[in-house]
Amino acid sequence: GAGVSQSPSNKVTEKGKDVELRCDPISGHTALYWYRQSLGQGLEFLIYFQGNSAPDKSGLPSDRFSAERTGGSVSTLTIQRTQQEDSAVYLCASSTGRVYEQYFGPGTRLTVT
Amino acid sequence: GIQVEQSPPDLILQEGANSTLRCNFSDSVNNLQWFHQNPWGQLINLFYIPSGTKQNGRLSATTVATERYSLLYISSSQTTDSGVYFCAVKGTYNTDKLIFGTGTRLQVFP
Known about the structure:
Low-confidence stretches of chain A: none
Radius of gyration of chain B: 13 Å
Order of helices and strands of chain B: EEEEEEEEEEE
Structural class of chain A: mainly beta
Strand content of chain B: over 45%
Helix content of chain B: under 10%
Number of strands of chain B: 11
Distance between the termini of chain B: 41 Å
Oligomer: heterodimer
Shape of chain A: globular
Structural class of chain B: mainly beta
Strand content of chain A: over 45%
Number of helices of chain A: 0
Distance between the termini of chain A: 37 Å
Number of helices of chain B: 0
Mean pLDDT of chain A: 93
Radius of gyration of chain A: 13 Å
Largest sheet of chain B: 6 strands, mixed
Low-confidence stretches of chain B: none
Shape of chain B: globular
């Protein structure tokens, strides 16, 4: 079956612009995660959605970052007023529940110039 | 929070050799996963193994949860095994996120 998909695969933006990154989880997966992979910080957790519960936003690095998940499926990560330090690969993952195996999408490579 | 350490950081092998990668973690976990990140950046699931032993072809993994470590074995390595191998865990007392180790970079030469 289809895996986790993300779009765009690459995004180049100018400093100060807003960007939106999209994630389509595996059908039927109730848990959705966003992570970020950067050279200096490795792979780090950003935010977690589980069903209709309030999201765990504890990993978001600043209030310029936000995410939503509509209808329990597709999620959008928004970064406002992008900075150069936001350059990274943004990865989305989904699973059947909070303890279970997570499956990752191919990522969106964000470059802020 | 929980700490995850992987060793060795780098490994260079000739095709056909065997290797063992290690992952140590600092607290109780209820999820442990091994991933292979290929040269295109895709994270490929290898094992979901919070405890016990599993095998999949030339790869196998063992997690000893009581001693807080996991091992990934690669036998008869191939050039396509090259890439970075990550161990990631979820702490039993914080089940919302995976904590990743810093990875082992494997290079297999023909």
